[in-house]
Amino acid sequence: MKNVQWIGGTLLVAMLAACGNSEPAAVAAVPVLVTQPDAGQGAAALAFPGEVRAREEAALSFRVGGKLLRRHVDAGAQVKKDQLLAELDAADYALQARAAQAQYAAAEADLVRARDDHKRYEALAAQQLVSRSALDAQTAAFKAAQAQANAARSDLEVARNQAAYAQLRAPEDGVIATRQAEAGQVLAAGQTVYTLAADGAREVAIALPEGGIRDFRVGQPVEVELWSQPGRRWPGSIREIAAVADPQARTYATRVSLAPEALDAVELGQSARVFATGGRQAALSVPLAAVQQNGPSQQSSVWVVEPASSTLKARTVVLGPYGAEKVPVLSGLKADDWVVAAGGHLLREGQAVIAVDRKNQPVLAPAAATQKGE
Known about the structure:
- This protein is α+β, with helices and mostly antiparallel strands.
- It is about 25% helix and about 35% strand.
- It has three helices and 26 strands.
- A six-stranded antiparallel β-barrel has the order 4-13-16-15-14-17. Strands 3-18-23-22 form a four-stranded antiparallel beta sheet, with no helix packed on it.
- The longest helix is centred in the N-terminal third of the chain and has 36 residues, at about 90-125.
- The radius of gyration is 41 Å and the shape is rod-shaped.
């Protein structure tokens, strides 16, 4: 029995040794679907999502603080210049105005008395019945009373203005874009109650990527298409590009002016797309499924088949804004490259492949040698 166990163990060791000395089996090349990048015509036309906004937008607020008594309009309302929009509880301001009125009346009475005294002293001084110093004292008292009356008049005007500031009126014709306060809320001076979109020019607010900001300029012509009216485009131009990028999104806020003929077709808040022609010539595009995100930096790359060896090589690329099915490649590819169109997450660097098109026909000669497994 012991001999049988020993023989079996010896055979097992011999078999393992034989397996260890054998050559690794060749790994067959796998078929991959490839495509060549679509070549653009001229400069790359890029699409940026945006929103229709008014060129002039004002944050409306009360110049004084207080409790919001009532609102007269809501978001979306069309308003006219000087139309009453909202009111504060003005009881305290009315009391202040009455107090200022009383102080002004008292100051006016003191002024009248000081004026009369000054006239009498002038007459007495002319008859040399009072000294010159006494007349000077009455002249100073008269001027002081006059200054007190002027100060009281100014305080009264300020109190009346504050009472008037308790009413919020539209500075010009427009549309109430947003409402940010409710009746009963206690507001601070300057706290926004409404945002008014003034009548007149309309614009589209978009964000340009930091990587391609040098390809755009103020005054550059663009085309605008509303999401609600696909296929119809209006001419426009870039009016303003922010000088500093947004610290979070790393994009530049941009305003696109619409042509006058588009004003009747657009409404505030509508979604739109802006088609702008960048400065990069003959942009290429690849299917979305061809793009791979590599490493912690999420750098974009695609698999390219090397024609000589039919092996894969990762190619780092710079991409433009993503489309519905494709994405423009701003740099990193050539028009005659064969790019793996799908299944890139299952492949590896240097892997031998058979490049086939959508008809399952080879597009490159097979590799001269197959890849060895480990």
